[in-house]
Write a structure and sequence with these properties.
single chain, alpha/beta, Rossmann fold, about 40% helix, about 25% strand
């Protein structure tokens, strides 16, 4: 079984905690980092990119859309799923497939 390496980026700790709890029961997903902002994301990417990044679309500073553009230029194989508000549950369902 291939394990999916996942990085989560959200400025709200409660969102990160909730996503971690929801995803912890899935053996095929390994959360490799949790980041609260773009600086933490960039520092954690130095150890190598994950397969998927769950990225808050409304981070302070640059938006998740702007950050995604930069990430995809540097890491074209990375998959990005934007996280925002009411769609978190939908995202969790999509990841399972």
């Amino acid at each position: 079984m291939n394990v999916i390496k996942l990085m989560m980026v959200d400025d709200h700790q409660v969102v990160l905690d909730g996503l971690r709890i929801l995803l912890s029961g899935l053996p095929e997903i390994k959360i490799i980092n949790e980041c609260r902002n773009e600086d933490e994301l960039n520092n954690n990417l130095k150890s190598g990119p994950p397969d998927i990044i769950l990225l808050d679309i409304t981070l302070p500073g640059r938006s998740g859309i702007e950050i995604a553009r930069t990430l995809l230029e540097k890491y074209p194989l990375i998959k990005i799923i934007w996280v925002f508000g009411i769609y978190i549950q939908l995202i969790i369902v999509l990841i399972q497939f």
